[in-house]
Amino acid sequence: MVANRDNLSTATPSSETLANGCRVMIMAGGTGGHVFPALAVADQLRAANASVAWLGTQRGIESDLVPAAGIVLNCIDIEGIRGRGLSALLKAPLLLWRSLRQALTVLSDFQPQVVLGMGGFASGPGAVAARLKGIPIVIHEQNSVAGTTNKLVSRIAQRVMQGFPGALANGEWCGNPVRPEIAHLSAPEQRLANRGGLPRLLVLGGSRGALAINQLLPAALALIAPHQRPQVRHQTGKLHCAATQALYDAAAVSAEVVPFIDQMDEAYGWADFAICRAGALTVAELTSAGLGALLIPFPFAIDDHQTVNGKLLVDQGAALMIAQSDLTPALLAGQISALCSDSEGRLKMAINARQLAKNGAAERVADVCLEVAHA
Questions:
Q1: Residue 237 main-chain phi, psi, to 5 deg
Q2: pTM of the entire structure?
Q3: pLDDT > 70: what percent of the chain?
Q4: Is 268:276 a contact under the CB 8 Å cutoff?
Q5: Among 172, 317, 325, 350, which residue's CB has the most CB atoms within a 10 Å radius?
Q6: DSSP states along 357-368
Q7: Where are the domains of the chain?
Q8: What is the mean pLDDT of residues 24-36?
Q9: Topology (CATH level 3) of domain 182-356
Q10: Which string of DSSP letters, residue by residue, matches 312-343?
Q11: pLDDT score at 265
């Protein structure tokens, strides 16, 4: 169910929903780091009998995930301009005006009682449109360093929520929403303490994959003796699966290589440790699951927020971190070998990670939306 541009349509809320629930427009998109937390909140809202619609774009991961979740997706035309050069800056006023008109049309059709901004390009025009129509705004900032859109929107929002303390001066720290099945995993002491066999390594690069990790990891694992290598489950991202599998084949390293993992709770429950980026959602899921990790922050993240995100885990003994600029197959092999040979260290990291978990964020954000809608 997708509505696009000027040919916009939304599902008409049933009479039962209009009588018993409220209408919430979620604005989120681009990457899984925005969309998965927003979906977790949407689940809580729908469980409370709210009617939920979504504002996003056709370019982001929301174009697949939101309709699959049974939520109407309304797409507007908007894209980022930061770091895109002079041409993008010159086009920006026209693009922003067009996206604002489209967002106003979406809000007029759905008539939400509150909008929830969870990040992504659509959140900016959506929030401005909501302000113009007098619709209250709630935002949630996932990262430890707030994005430009949320910094601006926080000035006009009725309520501001945040995944890390101090990201926004006027924000309530509630943590980052994660899928409940991840939070419900058994404690690390139960999962990891008595495992036998080779250690299990989960490799994640976020919803779009991580090219540097994909390229270096097969070569790093090839430097480890076969009887000491971990079992590997590697999420590559949609664009890199075949190429990464070819690198594993060339290195004569066995691994389960997949473009995307749908059942993340099962993957976290399977793993003994992870190698991954340090996006806000990944950090939240590692703590919620209770899993130690070797973090390789994406070096081109705006304001280097992934390094700041990951430092929270490193400082509490829940993770190790390597800058991508320092990464070599030999260095990576050494870190993997050390983790594989230290089951007590892996367990301690996992326990420390679980102690950092701030669960219940999805429920809290949903509750705030309903409070604001009925204020």
A1: 90, 155
A2: 0.86
A3: 90
A4: no
A5: 350
A6: ----HHHHHHHH
A7: 15-177+360-374, 182-356
A8: 93
A9: Rossmann fold (3.40.50)
A10: HHHHTTSEEE--GGG--HHHHHHHHHHHHT-H
A11: 97
